[in-house]
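Shipment paperwork, digital attachment
Item: protein structure file
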Amino acid sequence: MKKYTFHTDPSHGWLEVPRAALTKLGIEHKITDYSYQLGDRVYLEEDGDFSTFVRASMEALGLERNEENARRWMKDHIDPSEKHTAYSPVRAYERYAPSVAVPAEVVEMHGGAA
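Attachment content:
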């Protein structure tokens, strides 16, 4: 099963996921700027965005939303924490912003390729 890494420092934590997973689940615009991004990786903050991702993932798998299924999903999909005793490097990453898809018509109007 696919494993995601959970990063922590003494005061917070983030689940590292590929940006494509957010798009596939249709939640890219539900993630807040309390999360971070670096390249094609998004670091979902533990207090809200993490839960949004877990719920959407469970729904995609057809799992009923309950505590037992959530615990099972986390056990099956999350690697043990990447722990930092001081400031986590995640805090230095850019704040999350959803990708902006530019309609093909706009690209063509400006002489670009779609």
